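Quick review question:
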């Protein structure tokens, strides 16, 4: 009996190894919680561009250029084109997981690429899918009272509104934060600009803010939003999130121009001049004193 089990065991092992050798597709089983996992980072142009760089370095050799179907056709199983349905029908969490674990042929990237890099790859793969819309990003925060709050912040382009949905975790249940005070700010050079007034979340834990249409952002139009929540049960929480909702503005950054607050090389000319003249003056004075002392010495020697 023992021997039979041993034989079966070695047979299973042999078949598995054979499958690996032949490259028979080993369907990667993605655990449910991994499948549902959403990207913590926004798939904006910058993320997609980074994703492209990472893809070119690590993936192009097998998968080719997405949407060009120029992947390694001699491989078995074929790697496939990431722009195709076979890839795109995966959830974001599934893509992320599959990139992490690899498969019989594809290497495991968990230990090669950081989580951020792997999410950027997912963003890049999604950029070839016109029908894809990234689910609202959820931010999980744990406040001073060690209570967990989940926030999703979405922007509606049509009516320039920011929707904030706040949920808290009580034991294992997710409950909306009802009637909590919410203040929305947009970060500016100095300080914050409050958007509308202090508002209160409704029964669903949601609140809407009308966002100004013409607020300048950075070069890409990014604006950092700061959300402050005050809830009786969950306490006070502040989170920030950058969204591409401003007018792209090519203003030189505060540290680009010469200014008192900048690094040495970019200090204002008048400070550099004053400083240089001061230093030269002091050294000149010291040298003058040394010369005078030498002169006095010489003079006293002559007298002797
Ligand atoms: C050595 C070749 C090779 C490299 C390098 C490689 N892959 Fe793969 N990849 C494959 C093969 C082969 C499959 C399996 C296709 C199958 O099982 O049908 C695969 C499958 C996948 C899948 C699963 C698709 C599905 O059907 O669900 C994803 C996602 C993926 N690769 C992404 C990537 C990314 C991103 C990179 C770069 C970080 C990468 N791969 C690098 C060969 C490779």
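Suggested answer, residue by residue:
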């Amino acid at each position: 009996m023992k021997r039979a089990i041993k034989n079966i065991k070695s047979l299973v092992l042999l078949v598995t190894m054979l499958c690996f050798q032949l490259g028979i597709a080993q369907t990667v089983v993605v655990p449910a919680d991994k499948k549902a996992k959403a990207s913590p980072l926004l798939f904006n142009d910058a993320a997609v561009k980074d994703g492209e760089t990472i893809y070119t370095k690590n993936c192009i050799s097998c998968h080719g250029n997405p949407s060009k179907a120029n992947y390694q056709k001699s491989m078995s199983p074929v790697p496939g084109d990431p722009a195709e349905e076979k890839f795109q029908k995966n959830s974001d969490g599934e893509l992320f997981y599959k990139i992490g674990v690899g498969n019989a042929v594809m290497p495991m990237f968990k230990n090669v690429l950081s989580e951020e890099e792997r999410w950027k790859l997912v963003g890049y793969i999604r950029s070839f899918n016109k029908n894809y819309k990234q689910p609202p990003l959820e931010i999980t925060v744990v406040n001073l009272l060690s209570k967990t709050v989940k926030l999703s912040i979405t922007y509606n382009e049509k009516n320039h509104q920011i929707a904030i949905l706040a949920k808290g975790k009580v034991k294992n249940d997710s409950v909306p934060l009802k009637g909590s005070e919410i203040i929305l700010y947009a970060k500016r050079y100095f300080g914050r600009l409050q958007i509308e007034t202090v508002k209160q979340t409704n029964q669903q834990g949601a609140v809407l803010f009308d966002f100004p249409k013409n607020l300048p952002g950075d070069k890409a139009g990014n604006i950092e939003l700061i959300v402050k929540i005050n809830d009786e049960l969950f306490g006070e929480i502040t989170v920030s999130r950058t969204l591409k909702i401003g007018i792209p503005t090519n203003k030189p950054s505060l540290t680009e121009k010469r200014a008192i607050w900048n690094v040495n090389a970019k200090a204002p000319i008048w400070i550099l001049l004053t400083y240089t003249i001061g230093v030269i003056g002091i050294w000149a004075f010291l040298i003058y004193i040394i010369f005078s002392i030498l002169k006095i010495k010489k003079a006293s020697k002559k007298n002797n």
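Why it works: Residues 3 and 23 are 30 Å apart (CA to CA). The longest strand covers residues 161-170.
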